[in-house]
Design a protein that fits this description.
Blueprint: H1 2-34, H2 54-61, H3 65-79, H4 89-93, H5 97-110, H6 117-126, H7 137-146, E1 150-151, E2 154-155, H8 181-192
Antiparallel strand pairs: 1-2
Helix pairs in contact: 2-3, 2-5, 6-8
């Protein structure tokens, strides 16, 4: 009986040692994982054109939607080398990809997925629009109503827009699409043509 107890005790000791070894190995593996660079919660403000997106990020973070909308317009002009006016067709077509992605990512992040160019593109595609860079009147009309840029048959002037998260998904950004109505819809189609 005593031998059985000693044998059983030895077996338990071996299992404890084995468990300790496994734990030690797991702990060592965990230590190695700790040294891997994990992306921080900091925003990637990358730019092909050396644009500083700090102000845009801070405005979006604060929920200052109207100011962020205007800042988006300004940094987009800066990215194409201009200070005023509407973005031209060729500028939208050739807009720096890294900058477009940075702007969109900031909008989607700080609006919890409610706003941004990629959000607008999804709406456009969902309602039957194509992301081929060409204007499609029916899809554009439906999109404008859905994001509340148009109510019934009337366009809402930029100054009359609401700048808060109670607005429909895709409502912002908007300022970059201002100008002539042709400029508005070609702008959205040309940006939706891009990978986001």
């Amino acid at each position: 009986m005593n031998k059985k107890l000693i044998s059983f005790s030895s077996l338990i000791d071996e299992e404890v040692k084995e468990s300790e070894n496994k734990f030690s190995q797991e702990k060592q593996t965990f230590s190695i994982v700790e040294n891997i660079t994990i992306p921080s919660s900091e925003d990637d403000l990358s730019s092909e054109k050396e644009i500083d997106y700090t102000k845009l990020r801070d405005l979006l973070k604060a929920g200052s939607w109207k100011e962020a909308d205007y800042e988006t317009y300004m940094v987009m002009l800066q990215a194409v080398g201009r200070k005023e006016g509407d973005l031209r067709k060729e500028e939208r077509l050739n807009f720096p990809s890294t900058d477009l992605y940075t702007i969109d990512r900031l909008w989607t992040k700080y609006s919890n997925g409610n706003f941004g160019f990629s959000v607008q593109k999804k709406i456009l595609l969902r309602i039957g629009g194509k992301s081929d860079g060409n204007y499609q009147k029916g899809a554009w009309e439906q999109f404008s109503i859905e994001v509340r840029w148009k109510v019934n048959k009337d366009w809402i002037f930029y100054g009359d827009l609401s700048f808060d998260t109670s607005m429909p998904v895709g409502h912002l950004p908007r300022r970059v699409f201002s100008g002539t109505s042709y400029g508005r819809y070609t702008g959205l189609y040309l940006l939706s043509h891009r990978d986001l």
